[in-house]
Amino acid sequence: MNVLTQAASHTSLKIERVDTFILQLPLADQTFYSSQAAFPIRNSLLVRITAEGGLVGWGEGGQYGPAEPVAACIDHVLAPKILGKPVSSPIKTSEELYAFSRDFGQKGTYVEALSAIDIALWDLWGQVLGVPVSELLGGAFRSEVTAYATGCYYPESFKNYDALLEALEAEASTYASAGFSALKVKIGLLSVEQDAERLAVVRNAIGPDKKILVDANHAYNAATAIRMARELERFDVRFFEEPVVPEDRAGYRRVRDATDVPIAGGEAEFTRFGFRDLFVGECIDIAQPDVCCCGGFSEYLKIQALASTFGVRVIPHVWGSGVAVAAALQAIATIPPLPHTANPVALQNEPVVEYDRKHNPLRDDLLESNFSLKDGRLAVPTGPGLGVTVDEDVLNKFAKKVSK
């Protein structure tokens, strides 16, 4: 078979079936809190798309809330529309699915479902061609990515303030000794003054050279967020994530105008249209699209391009299983330094990847070869597609429901 014939056979390969897997894992005595709620379980949704001949691609969505609605969108609405479609056109398929569902699904559940399908299609197309998704997206600028530790959540006993501070100091110290150069601390469940004291404990524990990031999970109104931002300046905080609710564009702008701390947001935003509004409104310095929620790789490409025209850095949000981490790494690998210099590391223009440090077997046990940190960095998978293989025995152990 010559090259042209082989290429033609690839492009004619069709989608044969779509399966969804609702994953749920209770955390028992390891429950933790953000400003919004307790996290007593790990949950997500995986989609497996199988092509003619048995080759499969994996995608993820449904990590934020219950996975059942996302699975229903895929099983009953979107999957029937892609059966028999070519695997070689993920962007075309994504555009067609969004055009079909935009009247009732511009944000939220439908876009999460579309994200999972899109990621699986890019993974599958990479499998067919034998190249990683980062190459399909245009090429990798880096082979490994610095990870920042997301931790310092609130424990169930957060009302026992003295014990909380003692545990916080020990936790932050472990991240510093593990080689992380940056740590993201959760704030917003306690008063501004108490959270400022927590940050003082963290800074003392990790020393002056490690970076502190904070995430309020939209706990504040603009006035309170500005008060908090003034406290953050004391600790050289490098970004303030979700200071106000995602709908409050004017509030974002007020906070950003009132502080030198870079403002980050976007994990609760969807598609290029939502991010366009954040950029035009001058709401954020750092965009945080989650590839598993914003529309998948096809939409991420457009968000990244828009961000670059506004001088906004992109640091994707990551939450979910090992599939989500693999997708994020493939996306982050393709981010150009912004702005470009001959030495982007020195000017801290390089993107980073979020690496949650709370108990997460969906990430740490799901893949046949799971991620491991080396000197505080994660390698970008180099295999075809996402570059990872789901261990289906482990998957079935975690699966609450399988739709076929």
From TrEMBL:
One GO BP: carbohydrate catabolic process
Keywords associated with the record: Isomerase, Magnesium, Metal-binding
Cofactor section: Mg(2+)
Residue span(s) of domain Mandelate racemase/muconate lactonizing enzyme C-terminal: 165-262
Single GO MF descriptor: isomerase activity
Designated name of the protein: D-galactarolactone cycloisomerase
Cross-referenced InterPro entries: Enolase-like_C_sf, Enolase-like_N, Enolase_C-like, Mandel_Rmase/mucon_lact_enz_CS, Mandelate_racemase_C, Mandelate_racemase_N_dom, RHMD-like
Keyword Metal-binding: yes
PANTHER family per the UniProt record, alphabetical: ENOLASE SUPERFAMILY, MANDELATE RACEMASE, MITOCHONDRIAL ENOLASE SUPERFAMILY MEMBER 1
